[in-house]
Amino acid sequence: MLRQGPRGDLSRVNSIVTALTATTAVLRIAAFAAAVVVGVVALVDWAVRTRRLNPFGGVGRFMRKNVDPLLAPIEHRVVRAGGRPSSAPAWALVVVVIGSLVLLWALQFLTGQLSAAGDAFALGPRSVLRLVVHWTFLLLEIALLVRVVSTWVRISPYSRWVRWSYPLTEWFLRPLRRIIPTIGMLDITPIVAYFGLSLLEGLVVGFI
C-alpha cells in the first residue's frame, strides 16, 4: 500500500475541517429548533405544575406521564439545592441551551485547531513547533479556567471532571499565592496567572 505523504494528510485534514464546518452549521439549526421545542414544552409543563392549566385534563395527564419522568433528575437536583419543583422545566431549558452552546463551541474550537494544524504542516517545522507551543499553553489556560469555574459552581476538586486541572495549574498558582495578596474574599491569582501565561506564550513563540 502506497503512503499518501504530507499532501495526502493535508487533504484529509481539509476534508475533516469541511465536514466539521458543515456539521456545525446543521447542528446550529438543530440546536435552535430543539431550544424552541423544549421552551414550549417547559412552558406548558410549568403551567401544569403551577395549576394554570388543569393538571387532570388531557394536557396535564400527558405532561405528567411523558414529560415529568424526563425532568425527574433535574427536579431532584433543584429540590436538593433548595429550589421549587415547579422550576424544573425552566432549568431543563437552561440545560438544553447551555449544552447546545457548549457543543457548538467545542465543534468550532476543534475545527479551528484542525485548520491551524493543516496550515502549520503546510508552512514547515517551525510553524508546527509554534503550534505545539500554542497548544501547550492553551491546555494550561483551559485547565485554569476549569479550576476557576469549578469553584464558582462548587464542584468537588476530586471530581473526575475537575481533578485533572489541579496538577496542571497548581505548580504555577502556588508560588503566585505567596506573592499576590487576596482582595477581600477575591483571589486574583488565577487572573494574574492567565495573563502571565498569555505573555509567556508570546515571548516563547517570538523566539522560535
Q: Describe it for me?
A:
- The chain has helices spanning about 5-50, 60-80, 90-125, 125-150, 165-180, 190-205.
- It is mainly alpha-helical.
- The mean pLDDT is about 90.
Distance between the termini: 37 Å
Judging from the principal axes of the Cα atoms, what is the shape? flat
- Average pLDDT across residues? 88
Q: Count the helices. How many?
A: 6
Main sheet attributes: strand count, strand direction, barrel closure: none
> What is the β-strand count?
0
Kindly estimate the percentage of residues that lie in beta strands according to DSSP. Answer: under 5%
Number of domains: 2
Q: What is the helix fraction of residues, given as a range?
A: over 70%
Based on CA atoms alone, the radius of gyration comes out at 24 Å
Q: Which residue ranges are poorly predicted, with pLDDT under 50 across at least 5 consecutive positions?
A: none
> Which class do the helix and strand fractions yield?
mainly alpha
Order of helices and strands: HHHHHH
Fold blueprint:
Blueprint: H1 5-49, H2 58-80, H3 88-123, H4 125-152, H5 165-179, H6 189-207
Helix pairs in contact: 1-2, 1-3, 2-3, 3-4, 4-5, 4-6, 5-6
